[in-house]
Amino acid sequence: MAQDNITDDATRAGLEDLVLANRILAENQVLDGFGHVSLRSPARADRYYLSRSLAPGIVTLEDLVEFDLDSNPVAAEKRKLYLERFIHGEIYRRRPDVQAIVHSHSATVVPFTVSSVPLKPIYHMAGFLADGAPVFDIAEKFGHTDMLVTCHEHGAALAESLGEAASSLMRGHGFVAVGSTLPIAVYRAIYTQQNAALQETATNLGGEIRYLDPEEGRLADRSIQTVMQRPWGLWTARAKNPKA
Ligand SMILES: [Zn+2]
């Protein structure tokens, strides 16, 4: 139980937020029985926290496990772990700017992982998609697999595909969203899904779609990041008290 050894306030607060992030993403149907969210350790850049293998909607502090960047648990751990934890370790290794990662199998987003129609920013809330979302095709390097990111090599290939982007699609699987804070990663995961739904709606209208220009997207992303505490405050309040 990772929190037994936590003495610094930043880490304790981070872990409490990570529990809430699990609930928030489940509530927003970005995560269901599957998918996960992680936080780079506030105390050590070469470690991260992720739940043991558990549905995100029921994760508590006791379920969080501390991992090194090889995605091995730091302390002895007998509980089952997520098979796809290598997504997190390898992205943290490649992207020092990333402090939190969400991995989702959102049914709203998956069609864009297999279609030749690219996911593009429909509105300002998805400005982080300004430069598009790369599509990671696990078959390109690894041939026929079970489609899961279950080893260092898979994770490193995904991280390479992500590059400097905020979100990467995964063919026939789902997507990852990253952020420089936990609220930003959660926000990007929720709004990757929202943008996919809106893009499908706009496409069904039948006319030509005018997406955000890359510069509009970058400017919008910068503005939204300055007000991240507003949605985060709402989401965490609801996660703490679902009846409110
Ligand atoms: Zn997955």
UniProtKB/TrEMBL annotation:
Biological process terms in GO annotation: pentose catabolic process
Keywords: Lyase, Metal-binding
Name this protein carries in UniProt: Aldolase
Domain (Class II aldolase/adducin N-terminal): residue spans on this chain: 16-200
GO annotations of cellular component type: cytosol
Pfam family, one: Aldolase_II
The organism of origin for this protein: Candidimonas nitroreducens
Database matches in Gene3D superfamilies: Class II aldolase/adducin N-terminal domain
One MF annotation (Gene Ontology) recorded for this entry: aldehyde-lyase activity
The keyword Metal-binding appears for this protein: yes
InterPro entries referenced in this protein's UniProt entry, alphabetically: Aldolase_class_II_sugar_metab, Aldolase_II/adducin_N, Aldolase_II/adducin_N_sf
